[in-house]
Amino acid sequence: EAQVTQNPRYLITVTGKKLTVTCSQNMNHEYMSWYRQDPGLGLRQIYYSMNVEVTDKGDVPEGYKVSRKEKRNFPLILESPSPNQTSLYFCASSLSRGAAAKNIQYFGAGTRLSVL
Amino acid sequence: EDQVTQSPEALRLQEGESSSLNCSYTVSGLRGLFWYRQDPGKGPEFLFTLYSAGEEKEKERLKATLTKKESFLHITAPKPEDSATYLCAVRSNYGGSQGNLIFGKGTKLSVKP
Question: Would you call A39 an interface residue with chain B, using a CB distance cutoff of 8 Å?
């Protein structure tokens, strides 16, 4: 089954304790992206990657890091989490960033993070 | 800069009461408009892609249409299971973000039996 898998689904942590949220896709997609979703603000892009070793900032990158060492994995790293990073996080992937009709972005089930 | 605005923010319907959700967009050269459905606590689920004005797509009780400035998601005779938040997104054509999706804030639909 084609899917984007995020782990963990729920995470409670404390300010300053480094954490990693993993994301894996089994569709051989080149493009992967991280979003955060907050009430009243909608989905905002944090970072994206167009291929292995190619990453770039989205709209709200401050306080986050990513890496893309393998095509299937795109972890999100919070080196020193703060309470304003409490949010619902989604990983997504698509074939590429192009405008082809089949280039649909698929989302993971989400990770709900609380930083105390 | 590319922008997406959805209205209304929330919509309450009785079962069987048809209505439409609006997505207006500003983009320098449309490269795709997307509709997603999102259930509480879950990831967005793809519904439709539209590329050119006049294009229409249908799936069960949902029909998406596109003009040069906006898209509508028409819901015909909705059922309670259609309750969800509906998200609209456009593929950005703006500078370094070209190809990324820009999302609206969504319309939360509630259908009462």
Answer: no
Q: CB contacts < 8 Å between A and B, how many?
A: 58
d(CA A87, CA A111): 8
What does the pLDDT average to over A70-91?
A: 97
Q: And the tokens for B92?
A: 């950005």
C-alpha A101/C-alpha B6 separation (Å) is: 23
Nearest to A110, CA basis, from A18, A2, A4: A4
Instruction: Establish how many alpha carbons lie within 13 A of residue A101's alpha carbon, considering only the half-sphere containing its beta carbon.
Output: 3
What's phi and psi for A60, nearest 5 deg?
-135, 65
Whether A48 and A33 have beta carbons less than 8 Å apart is answered as yes
Please give the Cα distance from B1 to A103 (Å, whole number).
Answer: 22
Q: Six-digit token pair at B49?
A: 């892609």
The per-residue pLDDT for range B11-24, each reduced to its tens digit, is 999 999 999 999 99
Taking CA atoms, what residue in B is nearest to A32?
B100
How far does Cα A116 stand from its chain's mean position?
A: 21
